[in-house]
Amino acid sequence: MDIVTAQEMYERDRVAMEAAGLDGKMLMENAGRAVAYDFLRHIQKEHKIVVLIGAGNNGGDGFVIARTLLNLGYDVEAWQVVPDAKTTGDAEAHKRIFQASGHPYRLLKSSEDLNTSLCRADVCIDAMLGIGVKGRLREPYADIVRLCNERSIVRLAVDLPSGVPADEGEEDFEAFQAHYTSIIEAPKQSAFLQHTQPYYGEWSVVEIGLPPKQLPDHRRRLWGRADVERTLPGREAHSHKGSHGKGLVIGGSRLMPGSVAMTARAALRSGAGLIAVSTDSEAIPAISPYVQEATFVEGENGGRVPDLGGYDGIAVGMGLGRNSMQETVVERLVREKETPLLVDADGLYLLKGFLGELKNREVPTVLTPHPGEFAHLTGLSIQEILRAPFSYSKEFAEKHGVYLVLKGPSTIITGPDGEQRVDVSGNAGLAKGGSGDVLSGILLSMMMQTEHVMDALSNGCFLHGSTADLLVQDGHSKVDLLASDVIEGLSRTFRTFSS
Ligand SMILES: NC(=O)C1=CN([C@@H]2O[C@H](COP(=O)(O)OP(=O)(O)OC[C@H]3O[C@@H](n4cnc5c(N)ncnc54)[C@H](OP(=O)(O)O)[C@@H]3O)[C@@H](O)[C@H]2O)[C@@H](O)CC1
Ligand SMILES: [K+]
């Protein structure tokens, strides 16, 4: 499913109209009806429903929604919150159809009148502003949004909660706080940002009849279960351990043996054929009982860099430490040109001095920062990154020729050519030490089993997050879930794909 900016959404509508001969009124009818039927899951016949209608096309959708619900026998009061002269074009045409169907609407004169209606209502549908919003809400919208947010009422939003910008980059706004949003045709960037996503509540997407084959490909999409089903590699009957990749995990230290142990075990649990661990010799006794299947290479302790030949993939950085000897290891790995490399945690910290050399690598380099680590790599603040993660990821990945996995509740995976995928699986149970180490192991394993790196990374993120989701549905809670539980839970997720 594509993720769009406001501009890209307008472009899609334009293409649908030009290439397929659809017109704006038709699309509005499709949108309003699809949203109205989508809302039926959240409303009941005895509910009193208020539909708030703005001046633009989002308001036009509101007239279609109100008419559809009234035709179905629901108790609906339609409120146009702007003077009549403000509604024009397709929205005005649908207002006429609404009236011709025998339905009256109310015009907002004062917010007290509306407040009286809201006091009696059970459900409020926000069809005031959608992707056309610019800047902070003006009156009367700001006042109405405050009234709605204060009331204990079911709040449903059409396309976007009014006031929420469609695109990333905007921080100064006030908005309708929806319990549920019915998004038209494609989710907008703001459905995935930490500061805007909470305004959507739960959401899903309704289809309005745009011709999929003619639409521009903006190369930014949500990666879901169906995509994983399509691209996850199977296991051939005649395969052997060498067929699924021989990986090297470099990291861990005497005081931090667990991280690298989890990476190695997660890689094996997600299908890697062989895993070697290069670590401080003093850490080996702590790691080996946890991953009996791994072999060991005496590692960077004392400045020794392990022999890097013969591996299909290398992951470095988990529990590695940050001193000059470890920096030498990272430097050498960056200059090594034959093996795909994944860099995480301390490895990212040490990588900063060698960013300029990444472009020279001839095989994939994958960086897996959380926003704090990405801030260190870019010199930006965490807040700046969270405000515009799509743009900063794209800029960085293209500039350095790397794959970037920016971790978070919505993980953004960006390729060196700027393609982006978003994974929203997972839950707050993953906000614990060790989660990143486990993800690195899964990603290393996926990279060794799938030639298409974007698919490997997207699938790896999905396996990690959806395992955590499965575990909190059955057996665990978000409080007690440990990163190591996710490793052991991977088998359950794989079994859901086994056919
Ligand atoms: N064919 C299509 O395109 C389809 C579009 N569809 C639907 O249309 C929606 C997009 O419609 P849109 O472009 O008319 O924008 P919309 O969100 O209604 O807002 C425009 C109004 O907002 C006002 N306004 C702006 N900022 C403001 C502020 N800060 N505070 C207060 N007011 C502000 C602005 O006023 P102005 O600045 O012009 O005075 C103008 O009146 C989209 O989300 C989807 O729901 C579907 O029907 C499918 C087909
Ligand atoms: K809205």
UniProtKB/TrEMBL annotation:
Entry GO MF terms: ADP-dependent NAD(P)H-hydrate dehydratase activity; ATP binding; metal ion binding; NAD(P)HX epimerase activity
Example GO BP: metabolite repair
Keyword match NAD: yes
Residues bound to K(+): 58, 126, 162
Cofactor binding remark: Binds 1 potassium ion per subunit.
Domain called YjeF C-terminal: residue spans: 224-497
CDD domains: YXKO-related
Entry binding sites for (6S)-NADPHX: 57-61, 130-136, 141, 159, 319, 370, 437
Catalytic activity of the protein: (6S)-NADPHX + ADP = AMP + phosphate + NADPH + H(+); (6R)-NADHX = (6S)-NADHX; (6R)-NADPHX = (6S)-NADPHX; (6S)-NADHX + ADP = AMP + phosphate + NADH + H(+)
Domain YjeF N-terminal, first and last residues per copy: 9-216
PANTHER family membership: ATP-DEPENDENT (S)-NAD(P)H-HYDRATE DEHYDRATASE, ATP-DEPENDENT (S)-NAD(P)H-HYDRATE DEHYDRATASE FAMILY MEMBER
Entry similarity comment: Belongs to the NnrD/CARKD family.
Entry function: Catalyzes the dehydration of the S-form of NAD(P)HX at the expense of ADP, which is converted to AMP. Together with NAD(P)HX epimerase, which catalyzes the epimerization of the S- and R-forms, the enzyme allows the repair of both epimers of NAD(P)HX, a damaged form of NAD(P)H that is a result of enzymatic or heat-dependent hydration.
Name of the protein described by the UniProt record: Bifunctional NAD(P)H-hydrate repair enzyme
Taxonomic placement: Bacteria, Bacillati, Bacillota, Bacilli, Bacillales
